[in-house]
Write a structure and sequence with these properties.
Distance between the termini: 37 Å
CATH topology: Rossmann fold
Structural class: alpha/beta
CATH architecture: 3-Layer(aba) Sandwich
Oligomer: single chain
CATH class: Alpha Beta
Helix content: 25-40%
CATH superfamily: Alpha/Beta hydrolase fold, catalytic domain
Strand order of the largest sheet: 1-2-4-3-5-6-7-10
Radius of gyration: 17 Å
Shape: globular
Number of domains: 1
Largest sheet: 8 strands, mixed
């Protein structure tokens, strides 16, 4: 399905009935990636899985990308679906988008799980962003990424340029304690204890503790031996079960 929002065509899939559950993929990913975490959609939820602007089948005529813009897109998409409040999971860049949403309109985000999303980009991450290229991605993953992004090399080159720009866009990803305290959603912060890009350290695990400390009443789960986005592969089943339990309110009780 396609929604025309903020000058973009945002592709999304929606399935099931129940509480709205927004699933936001990572940067250079797509909405269908969630099938590798949830082989079957969580019962009792209406899943909404979009491709962020410029990703997958979504367009981005502006040629710009910030996570704040992506958050505005998602609110516009939810408005078009008459979704007033919702629960959500955001991975990496999707998590940064979700943080912007929870800060901008706190009453709409009832509960959220933020995975591998730092409160700011540390020097280790910026060093990777400045020289980011397709060649830095393992060859086995490049084919999948190319297959997800249907507009070809120009689309991928644009995403690479957006990644490089993140190294100098501090204002977009700068979630200070004063900003984070605005969040009212029940929040679970998930971080791997080995957030690397390939062999290079990217996000020190201390960032997870900063985010957790800044979000009132949040929970923190540091995944042992977990890399960046520790929700796939051997971690998927545990994450899915934990996420469903949290989103259903079991932890609150």
């Amino acid at each position: 399905m396609i929604a025309n929002v903020n000058g973009c065509q945002i592709w999304f899939d929606t399935r099931g009935d129940g509480e709205p559950l927004l699933l936001l993929h990572g940067f250079m990913g797509v909405g269908s990636n969630w099938q590798y975490v949830f082989p079957a959609d969580p019962e009792g939820f209406r899943v909404i899985a979009p491709d962020l602007r410029g990703h997958g089948r979504s367009t981005n005529p502006s040629g710009t990308f910030t996570f704040r813009e992506a958050a505005a897109d998602m609110f516009a998409l939810l408005d078009s679906l008459n979704v007033a409040s919702f629960k959500a999971i955001g991975l990496s860049g999707g998590g940064l988008t979700l943080l912007h949403m929870a800060i901008a309109q706190p009453s709409r985000v009832r509960a959220m799980i933020v995975v591998s999303a730092p409160p700011y980009f540390p020097p280790e991450a910026k060093a990777i962003q400045r020289r980011y290229s397709m060649e830095m991605i393992p060859e086995a993953q490049r084919g999948a990424i190319r297959s997800w992004h249907v507009r070809g090399e120009d689309q991928l080159l644009a995403l690479i340029e957006h990644t490089r720009a993140m190294a100098v866009q501090d204002e977009d990803v700068m979630f200070t304690p004063d900003v984070l305290k605005k969040i009212t959603a029940e929040t679970l912060v998930v971080f791997g204890d080995r957030e690397y890009f390939g062999a290079e350290p990217m996000y020190p695990v201390s960032l997870a503790f900063e985010l957790h400390a800044g979000i009132p009443g949040s929970f923190l789960w540091v995944v042992p031996n977990g890399g960046h986005g520790p929700i796939f592969g051997p971690h998927a089943q545990t994450f899915a079960a934990t996420a469903e339990s949290f989103l259903r309110g079991a932890w609150r009780r």
